[in-house]
Specification:
Number of domains: 1
Oligomer: single chain
Number of strands: 2
Largest sheet: 2 strands, antiparallel
Strand content: 5-15%
Distance between the termini: 38 Å
Structural class: mainly alpha
Helix content: 55-70%
Radius of gyration: 19 Å
Strand order of the largest sheet: 1-2
């Protein structure tokens, strides 16, 4: 067995643990929302400020989410 196969097997086994699954269920969305909040805080170019989505202006997090 190659090293990568061994590492992938260990990774797969660790993700079958019920506690690990529960932690992923809650923590991954929290991490994603936190990262989007931090990305939204990055200053945007002036032309972004002219684009409105309802009562909000476009920021980098919106651009990132809606990229194909």
């Amino acid at each position: 067995m190659t090293k990568i196969e061994r590492l992938l097997n260990e990774y797969g086994e660790s993700h079958q643990n019920p506690i690990n699954k529960i932690l992923h269920w809650f923590c991954v969305p929290v991490i994603l929302i936190s990262l989007l909040g931090l990305i939204a805080a990055i200053p945007v170019p002036d032309f972004f400020k002219a684009i409105h989505l309802g009562d909000r202006t476009v920021n980098w997090a919106i651009v990132l989410v809606f990229l194909p």
